[in-house]
Amino acid sequence: MLTDIEIAQQAKMKKIDEIAARLGISADETEPYGHYKAKIPQKVIDSLKDKPDGKLILVTAINPTPAGEGKTTTSIGLSEAMNKIGKNAVLALREPSLGPVFGIKGGAAGGGYSQVVPMEDINLHFTGDMHAITAANNLLCAIIDNHLQQGNELGIDPRMIQIDRCLDMNDRALRNCVIGMGNRVDGVPRQDHFRITVASEVMAILCLASDLADLKKRLGSILVAYTYDGKPVFARDLNAVGAMAALLKDAINPNLVQTLENNPAFIHGGPFANIAHGCNSVRATKLALKLGDYCITEAGFGSDLGAEKFFDIKCRFAGLNPCCVVLVATIRALKYNGGVPKTELGTENLDALKKGIVNLGTHIENMQKYGVPVVVAVNHFASDTDAEIAYVTDYCKDKGVEVAFSDVFLKGGEGGIELANKVLETIDKHESAFKPIYDENLPIKEKIETLAREIYRADGVIFTAAAEKALKKIEEIGMDKMPICVAKTQYSLSDDPAKLGKPTNFSITVRDLKLSSGAGFIVVYTGDIMTMPGLPKKPAAYSIDIDNDGNISGLF
């Protein structure tokens, strides 16, 4: 069987001008990056402001397992299928981070015969958005340290700097470091930290900004430090905003590419969902809604992370009204949740399936709490038995949701027609009554406790002394009336990655809080979640190579 990259390299791509033309965008309205990628500038977005929006479909999933679920693949396959049956569907996905590409998770361009292309470009440097975000973030950090070096007129306390440097690569050695070592001209020594670019506040801001003016306003509102007397210092106080925005002038524009079946896809922004808000840019999603009758988008990891943040942060800020949730699972993953080792997932095991399917059931119930109708998409494997398929079908029926078995990995759009029809039927039959799950004006603790109780199913929340101190500081400066963004393990509904299925009798431990005032939310750190991942013992980078003709291999 061909690998993902071999399938992608055999694709017959159309020039990006042809893809744009399908959307009613002329060649001179795009900003091409070679033959198969283009940026869509503000003038195009402005020209569409009076056009009605299409319907918004969110693709999410159960908690990820080593067995694989295929959320991005399903998103792409659903788009292919809807176009194949005559519907005008446009994709809006996240950009991959180099961290997972060279680490262990892999990229985010789909798989099999449901991919976006050119997949090598998308998974590597693409149009340079990640690098622009990294540069803008680190420019702000350099300006802070230069301010300290040049006399510290604002009285910034070096121990109270709130922003980290970033790098779009898994590099655990940079989590904690000391900078400014050497001579006096080499800077003021202080402890510093790096986070991965996709977990930076600048990434979140880019993905939530409505236009360049909003981008600059949000950049200026970044809380960068506190003074010795406890007063907040923002990026605008350091005159950093204009230069940061200049670095992001192209990155703010959505990227247009295509699927293997030559359907349009916008790929823009890529915050992780376990340590950031997990959604592609508002601008890309809104553009897809204007250009398509249906916009299909996805949110990172399981619905307890990505979908929750999509609803409670992105939809709240952008005024989006999703009409359907597609919840992705596999029978293999459900059996894994039921305690079956990865090596034995190909064998029928109804007892394990019955035990593990409660994870799916919890995600269904959670999505229904937002008032949005749900369709379950089961990625089909040859090892799925008739008895297992029947059990999952009956279970979903009992939950009051449609279920479709998808073969988009092997068959592309043709393998997703059943799913596409189920989604369309659900949208026609059930009107969305979307509403965020909490009021952003509630006290911080009450917002966290609501998520812990309603989404994670925890008995309660434990706040460490450090968390209590950080929470009090946020309240003191009057910036507590914001949504919250929980940094939590993706592998479990709880904050313990070892607790599979539907954990019970547990509490969520909040160890710290951080104000992302430019993005407009409060980050809540639970468990031992890291903002700078590390490489595994055998990273994917070991398998990646390029030949003398420039052909890349080993990229999945």
| Count of strand segments | 25
Morphology: globular
Low-pLDDT runs? none
Which structural class best describes the helix and strand composition? Answer: alpha/beta
Please summarize the sheet with the most strands: 12 strands, mixed
- Count of alpha and pi helical runs: 20
First-last Cα distance:
13 Å
**Alpha-carbon Rg, integer:** 23 Å
Overall mean pLDDT score?
Answer: 96
Helix content: 25-40%
Percent strand:
15-25%
Describe this structure in words.
By secondary structure, the chain is α/β, with parallel strands linked by helices. It is built from 20 helices and 25 strands. The strands form 6 sheets. Strands 1, 2, 3, 4, 5, 6, 14, 15, 16, 17, 18 and 19 form a 12-stranded mixed sheet that branches. A hairpin with a 4-residue loop joins β22 and β23. The radius of gyration is 23 Å and the shape is globular. It starts with a helix and ends with a strand. The model has no long low-confidence stretch (mean pLDDT 96).
Keywords:
single chain; 556 residues; alpha/beta; four-stranded mixed sheet; 25 strands; globular
Give a quick summary of the entry.
The chain is of the alpha/beta class.
Helix and strand topology:
Layout: H1 4-9, H2 16-22, E1 31-32, E2 38-39, H3 42-47, E3 55-61, H4 71-84, E4 89-93, H5 98-102, E5 110-111, E6 114-117, H6 119-123, H7 129-149, E7 156-161, E8 165-167, E9 177-179, E10 190-192, E11 194-196, H8 201-208, H9 212-220, E12 223-227, E13 232-234, H10 241-247, E14 255-259, E15 264-267, H11 282-291, E16 294-298, H12 303-318, E17 324-329, H13 331-337, H14 350-356, H15 358-368, E18 374-379, H16 386-398, E19 402-406, H17 408-411, H18 417-429, H19 444-456, E20 460-463, H20 465-476, E21 484-487, E22 507-516, E23 521-526, E24 545-546, E25 552-553
Parallel strand pairs: 3-16, 3-17, 4-15, 4-16, 8-11, 17-18, 18-19, 20-22, 21-23
Antiparallel strand pairs: 1-2, 2-14, 5-6, 6-14, 7-12, 9-10, 12-13, 14-15, 22-23, 24-25
Helix pairs in contact: 4-18, 7-8, 7-10, 9-10, 13-14
